[in-house]
Amino acid sequence: MKKGILVAQIASMALLSCVLCAESQPICEKASLQDTSTEETVRDGHASEQPFLDEIHGEWVLLLHYPTRTKMTDITISPSKKVQSKNTDVCADMSISLTEDGSLVMANPQIRIDVVLDSRGHHLKGMATVQGVRGPIPCSAFKIIPEGKQE
Asked: 58 in helix, strand or coil?
């Protein structure tokens, strides 16, 4: 009796695993198709830099999160692809470029900041490489939205 129950349990587990494997393959194939279309959408969506630059220009608060302290400065991103810093101790003026994957690079000879924009367009996050510092530094920036223009 016990052997019959054990054989039935093993058979049902084997059948269940076969069913799950059969069902999971189309899901994986669908996921890979979705990933491909997403990559194409990203490439097509960033064919023109101007809409992206229109979205990010304005006043921002930039934070560089060092291991023992956080440095902060106000920056202004202009539509002409320039970043002006109000505190040159944190970072001097930088130029902007967009990478193929859609991330934003702000750089000058002393610092390179690679960030991505969140979906709402109010937060940048990524890593900074600073001259004289051994490893990359986490960084973030928050857009200063004028009081009358809040969502």
From this structure: strand
In the chain, alpha helices (H):
2-45, 49-56
Regarding whether 128 and 55 lie in a shared domain, the answer is yes
Q: What is the pLDDT of residue 93?
A: 86
Q: Are residues 64 and 3 in the same domain?
A: no
**Which two tokens mark 78?**
């202009």
- Whether 89 and 130 map to the same domain: the answer is yes
Supply the pTM of this predicted model. 0.62
Radius of gyration of the chain (CA): 25
Owning domain of residue 20:
1-45
For the stretch 21-79, pLDDT in tens is: 444 333 333 333 444 434 444 444 444 555 566 678 899 999 999 999 999 999 998 88
Among the listed residues 64, 62, 60, the one whose alpha carbon sits nearest the alpha carbon of residue 128:
64
